[in-house]
Amino acid sequence: MWRFLGTSKALTSSDVWFLGKCYKRLSEESSSDSDSESGHAAFLEDFSSRIWITYRKGFDATADSKYTSDVNWGCMVRSSQMLVAQALIFHHLGRSWRKPSEKPYNPEYIGILHMFGDSEACAFSIHNLLQAGKSYGLAAGSWVGPYAMCRAWQTLVRTNREQREVVNGNESFPMALYVVSGDEDGERGGAPVVCIDVATQLCCDFNKGQSTWSPILLLVPLVLGLDKINPRYIPLLKETFTFPQSLGILGGKPGTSTYIAGVQDDRALYLDPHEVQMVKLHYLLSIYEHQFYICVFLPPVT
């Protein structure tokens, strides 16, 4: 089952920056130009290799609730799952990895999908994120802001790592995680500063002093406006998509979140979690249900 979001007419001939990679002259109308055609095809291949996680219905009720679907309230959770999934793809498979057109699929790719299944048995499921973020206000049926979402990930990653070490010593989340926040609640605006000493200590704690280098995921919750984004932030936000380390942005407005993965001119390209699909059994993903985590063709543009 293939999902189509947007059409080829959504993009212009301008360059696109997508998760740190530039695609030049994407317009299909310039098909006589071989560079344009190859750029367009390469972008589609890159985009369709990203993991797309959406609303689900039919999962087991989350703890302390009767909710068996996250429709109308879980978009921030799903957007955050997409961002972390890309971090795992980049770490294990590299930025240049593309989903093959035919089976078999990379076992590490299937393993990453398993982590985001919709059951407590899956490490980074919506069930476990809600439990980890309970002290920050995460609850089934309620929308959550970016600060609380980042803290939920911080808690879940720490818990997951501790449990894996206790059970069998296997690697869990393969990188340190640093939530860069300027104040206690993260909702007052302002520009937080990355503290190198803090990042160094987190990496040292992660690798237990056994290595001089460790990967680290930086999550930076920001308030960039009230009803809409302050225009003065737009150039700087666009610049972040040119960084080779870029993992995109969880963005939108209160009550609506998407996973913004690229920009073209002053427009954002994103994967939209507001598509309702039936829950998929994580142990069947290696057979065929991985297709429900794939979004092909061009993304929506705002």
From TrEMBL:
Q: Which GO terms describe its biological process?
A: aggrephagy; autophagosome assembly; mitophagy; piecemeal microautophagy of the nucleus; protein processing; protein transport
Its Enzyme Commission number(s) read 3.4.22.-
Name listed for the protein in its UniProt record: Cysteine protease
Keywords, sorted A to Z:
Autophagy, Cytoplasm, Hydrolase, Protease, Protein transport, Thiol protease, Transport
- Quaternary form? Interacts with ATG8.
Peptidase C54 catalytic domain sequence ranges: 41-279
Database matches in InterPro entries: Papain-like_cys_pep_sf, Peptidase_C54, Peptidase_C54_cat
UniProt keyword Protease present: yes
* UniProt similarity note: Belongs to the peptidase C54 family.
Can you supply one Gene Ontology CC term for this chain's record?
Answer: cytoplasm
What function does the entry list? Cysteine protease that plays a key role in autophagy by mediating both proteolytic activation and delipidation of ATG8 family proteins. The protease activity is required for proteolytic activation of ATG8 family proteins: cleaves the C-terminal amino acid of ATG8 proteins to reveal a C-terminal glycine. Exposure of the glycine at the C-terminus is essential for ATG8 proteins conjugation to phosphatidylethanolamine (PE) and insertion to membranes, which is necessary for autophagy. In addition to the protease activity, also mediates delipidation of PE-conjugated ATG8 proteins.
GO terms for MF: cysteine-type endopeptidase activity; protein-phosphatidylethanolamide deconjugating activity
Reactions catalysed, semicolon-separated, are:
[protein]-C-terminal L-amino acid-glycyl-phosphatidylethanolamide + H2O = [protein]-C-terminal L-amino acid-glycine + a 1,2-diacyl-sn-glycero-3-phosphoethanolamine
Q: Which subcellular locations apply to this protein?
A: Cytoplasm
